[in-house]
Amino acid sequence: MEMPRDTVCDTDDAALLARYGRGDALAARELTARLLPRVLAFASRMLGGDRTEAEDVAQEAMLRLWRAAPGWRSGEAKVSTWLYRVAANLATDRLRSRRRRFRRMLGGPLALDEAPEPADETPGPEARLIGAERLAALDRALAALPERQREAVVLRHLEGLSNPEIAEVMGIGVEAVESLTARGKRGLAAVLKDQRAALGFEGD
Fold this sequence. Notes:
Low-confidence stretches: 1-8, 105-130
Number of helices: 9
Mean pLDDT: 76
Number of strands: 0
Strand content: under 5%
Largest sheet: none
Order of helices and strands: HHHHHHHHH
Distance between the termini: 34 Å
Helix content: 55-70%
Shape: globular
Structural class: mainly alpha
């Protein structure tokens, strides 16, 4: 019987990390090729499409993974989940630093985390696969969400993590993940409301 893909990938990730921990540079290259594009895409969406900052976050997350490799205990955490958690924390730190700079520039607090609760319409997660224009619109909409909602939506619908995995990454309960995801999807629908027909989101 074929094993589920996620289980196979996680076993392979852990095995590659263990090999790297024993000094196998080839294993590091293989694991980098597998994980770096995913963590880079996640960081980019968390940071509103800032590619330079996303690259910094992704590289730092991978460096921390390499440092953790010698003492990695297989079975305690999925490699990919651990990496997403590190990247999420790094991206959040950068977002907070960015907000502090904006506050200093403007001389007061910013209500950046305020978001309306619009009607419950949502674009499908496969929107990222249907063309550059739709992808750009989706990225702009994600950037408009409060960061915790954005993180939950990206992990669930673009990275394909389960709610328990997202809960582990974000350090919250599964019910909180479900709430953040639902609110984030409604927020996306509100941002994309006037563009849905033009971008082909109708019916998603």
